[in-house]
Write a structure and sequence with these properties.
24% helix; three-stranded antiparallel sheet; 213 residues; alpha/beta; 5 helices; Dihydrofolate Reductase, subunit A; 9 strands; six-stranded mixed sheet; globular
Length: 213
């Protein structure tokens, strides 16, 4: 539930996200469903597609990318271009595994979305990062959540900086998202960071930056 006390800090968060100048942003399936919708993709189960990765026409030259961690093939993308009010259009890249159904891969191809296959049974984030750099030229990736996506990149050693905006609102809601959530392919383990900066923002909010120790 949105609290008015959050508005100043949330505005800072959005401005920071835009200001990073990243080549791409990455989200897990839960936040992506919040943007795209929670409906299930309608796929043709009899469709076959070639093995390996798929780079849609013109994708390698896109200005920016939306990287979606979605090994289960759950996101019902209407097209290969993600549009969001107040933001530039970005090309969609799905991170899949070899077990992601071929029918879902065909679904993505039909809509002009790209995908990268990384891992046999579970997502191999380190391999995915290598392929994102090789196929799309993505060198600077901004990982924006949810908790499992954040933990996946952290466990893979792919996070070199944490930039967190703390909002001055407390809640007892158990459904509130956390920054890091462990998963079978992204186990919990300590990862040390060193404080780089701390700044009061948006009234009573706090922007803290930690870098890999």
């Amino acid at each position: 539930m949105f609290d008015p006390a959050s508005s100043g800090s949330l505005g800072v968060y959005v401005a920071l996200q835009k200001g990073f100048g990243a080549d791409a942003v990455a989200y897990g399936s839960a936040p992506t469903k919040g943007f795209v919708g929670a409906g299930h993709p309608h796929v043709d189960v009899g469709t076959n597609v070639p093995e390996g990765d798929y780079v849609a026409a013109g994708a390698a030259d896109a200005a920016s990318y939306y990287v979606s961690l979605d090994s289960a093939g759950e996101i019902a993308w209407p097209s290969g271009t993600f549009r969001r009010a107040g933001r530039p259009d970005v090309h969609v890249i799905e991170l899949l595994t070899e077990e992601t159904p071929a029918a879902y891969r065909a679904y993505l191809c039909e809509r002009g979305a790209s995908y990268v296959v990384a891992g046999a049974h579970e997502l191999d984030v380190a391999l995915a990062c290598e392929k994102l750099a090789e196929l799309f030229g993505i060198k600077h990736l901004l990982v924006c959540g949810g908790g499992i996506a954040d933990q996946s990149f952290l466990a893979a050693g792919a996070l070199d900086e944490l930039s967190v905006v703390f909002v001055p609102v407390a809640t007892g809601d158990r459904n509130v998202a956390t920054i890091f959530d462990a998963a079978p392919f992204a186990p919990a383990a300590p990862h040390a960071f060193a404080l780089a900066s701390a700044e009061r923002v948006g009234g009573d909010g706090l922007h803290v930056v930690w870098r890999k120790a």
